[in-house]
From TrEMBL:
Coiled-coil parts of chain: none
NCBIfam families in alphabetical order: ygfZ_signature
GO terms under biological process: iron-sulfur cluster assembly
Protein name listed in UniProt: Folate-binding protein YgfZ
Source organism: Cellulomonas denverensis
Annotated region (Disordered), positions in chain: 356-377
Domain GCVT N-terminal, residue spans: 29-138
Length: 377
């Protein structure tokens, strides 16, 4: 459904997974600066909302997803993944419980709600897709919702959660620390009024151009961009905040444990700094290639991955997240396909080339030899 805020003067509609809200409202650079300064509001009403009620809701969600939820306190934000039996990501959701219901904010709300409904069995839970009634707006605020305030989800990224682990930068030097982000749920029929109230307080309305630029800078994976049918969480450094490694059995856990223990996920996420001097920019999905050797005259060589998110950052310039083969050398020169040619890309490592988390268990000698493959991936 399209947001009423698309009727604003200067609004340019977003496309792809952000369709239904504005890409920008006429001045994306100023919008991004306002968001970075911590005084802006972002229409996120294209996201879906699922509400789960019933006394068994938290223990049930705990048993079928990647996150530790049994003892989740009210108004405490986390996130979960729904995995296939082979450990591939099928759904991702922001999670917060208000003491009466658990709220899931997701890019795949209808499908997630349908899957959850099939998994209820005889438990005391009810699942409802309430997207038609509730809309999300984003604020650059690093605070949970307080009692009596609207349902609010504070993004836990990038601080490694209890039970999680990291492949990428340490928490205290992670670029995502500078990104403050929370989603506030408001009645959908009051969306314009809620935004207007924040504008009256001095916060401009900004589009997804700005929001995506700060997300890419923060190395923050997103389901609608970085995930395909083969993605496992290790490849995106998503074990930081979305997976609890020490909880009980759940679907996909075998792959999670095996790749964590043995290392070497098949792919890895990287940040690309794109050469914008030629005014060529790729699109999401563009092929990432190794620079060719002398035999090819330096032309693009073998494909090693794909661009997943593209951003025009007001300070960094054109940047992108890409998922590449783990075997791609971390110092390799890369080219990205675009209409009219290719652009060079400097690679900034996120998940290390050796594919090992900071707390991978020590090898046990001969018993682990030859177990580097992952037949279920």
């Amino acid at each position: 459904m399209s947001s009423p805020l698309l009727g604003r003067h200067g609004a340019v509609p977003a496309t792809g997974p952000d369709a239904g809200v504005a890409w920008h409202y006429g001045d994306p650079t100023a919008e991004q600066r306002a968001l970075t300064r911590g005084g802006a509001v972002v229409d996120q009403s294209h996201l879906g909302v699922v509400r789960v009620t019933g006394p068994d809701r938290l223990s049930w969600l705990h048993s079928i997803t990647s996150q530790q939820l049994e003892d989740l306190p009210p108004r405490t934000s986390t996130e979960l993944l729904v995995l296939s039996p082979q450990g591939h990501i099928e759904h991702a959701a922001a999670v917060v419980d208000d003491g009466t219901a658990t709220w899931l904010i997701s890019e795949t709300a209808p499908e997630l709600a349908a899957w959850l409904d099939r998994m209820r069995f005889m438990l005391r839970v009810e699942v409802a897709d309430v997207t038609a009634d509730w809309a999300a707006i984003a604020e650059p605020v690093n605070a949970e919702g307080a009692e009596g305030e609207p349902v609010t989800w504070r993004d836990p990224w990038p601080v490694t959660a209890p039970g999680g682990t990291r492949y990428g930068p340490a928490d205290d030097v992670h670029p995502g620390l500078d990104r403050r982000w929370r989603l506030v749920l408001v009645p959908r029929d009051r969306l314009a009024e809620e935004v207007a109230a924040r504008e009256a307080a001095g916060w401009p309305l900004v589009g997804t151009w700005a929001a995506e630029a700060v997300r890419v800078e923060a190395l923050r994976p997103r389901f609608g961009r970085e995930v395909d049918h083969r993605t496992i969480p290790h490849e995106l450094d998503w074990l930081r905040t979305a997976v609890h490694l020490h909880k009980g059995c759940y679907r996909g856990q075998e792959t999670i444990a095996r790749v964590h223990n043995l290392g070497r996920p098949p792919r890895r996420i990287v940040l690309l700094h794109l050469d914008g001097s030629g005014h060529l920019l790729p699109e999401e999905g563009a092929a990432v290639r190794l620079v060719g050797d002398a035999r090819t005259g330096g032309e693009p060589g073998r494909e090693v991955g794909r661009v997943t998110s593209l951003a025009r950052h007001h300070e960094l310039g054109p940047v992108a997240l890409a998922v590449v083969k783990r075997s791609t050398p971390v110092d390799a020169e890369l080219l990205v396909d675009c209409d009219g040619g290719a652009v060079s890309a400097g690679q900034e490592e996120i998940v290390p080339g050796e594919g090992v988390s900071v707390d991978r268990p020590a090898a046990h000698g001969p018993l682990t030899r030859g177990l580097g493959g992952h037949p279920m991936l």
